Amino acid sequence: xxxxxxxxxxxxxxxxxxxxxxxxxxxxxxxxxxxxxxxxxxxxxxxxxxxxxxxxxxxxxxxxxxxxxxxxxxxxxxxxxxxxxxxxxxxxxxxxxxxxxxxxxxxxxxxxxxxxxxxxxxxxxxxxxxxxxxxxxxxxxxxxxxxxxxxxxxxxxxxxxxxxxxxxxxxxxxxxxxxxxxxxxxxxxxxxxxxxxxxxxxxxxxxxxxxxxxxxxxxxxxxxxxxxxxxxxxxxxxxxxxxxxxxxxxxxxxxxxxxxxxxxxxxxxxxxxxxxxxxxxxxxxxxxxxxxx
Length: 293
Hints:
23% of the residues lie in helices and 24% in strands. With 293 residues, the chain is an alpha+beta fold. It has a single domain, classed as 4-Layer Sandwich (CNF1/YfiH-like putative cysteine hydrolases). The protein starts with a helix and ends in an 8-residue tail after the last strand.
């Protein structure tokens, strides 16, 4: 596991604002379930799953949480039940569609919600997204007690799922006497050297903001192809939102720069394997925590 201050500085500078880079680490709660520690305020619990400790077999081995990828439904249900034991309230399992819609976590419990993020201000209510290359992004806003989980593939990232998620949280006013710092964690995803894309992808980003050119490097052995830095582009979007929204507090960002493609023993990757499982990233505010709404 690695994370870097350099990436945060590089991709926030062009927007005239430097978000605060931060460190974090993982603590294992059980095989396949890690807690993100050292970054979020104590009131918030953030979990990241990996491949170990589950009931799935074959290319899904073993802690697959996706029920849409061809795995044995009983194995997936067993895995989901295992993760649910670490959450105070029911998990909203989204039907992710690579879009920008962010739903209320409480309204997504049915499991038939088509969206790419959830948010909540309810204590104990988890927000969760699943990934196997795309960026999982967890957000906490302690002043209002809110949190969110966002799923950002290149399409959702380009179209504005991060901005949509941050705007959803920004609708709630923070107490005037309280610092309004934001915490944004970008989890394990496909890395720069493994994510080769066509020029259409680059042009889609440049049509939004020419400064996004910083997120692409020409592929040496593939003319007309580019290597895309999803995590860097996400930091750029966060910085641009911070500059425009001008939140009263500091926006703190932590990045897990591990490439899921290069760690087959730990992470699922659709680009690497095709037929594979899904990991989960989730966040909730502890029910016993003080503060918030």
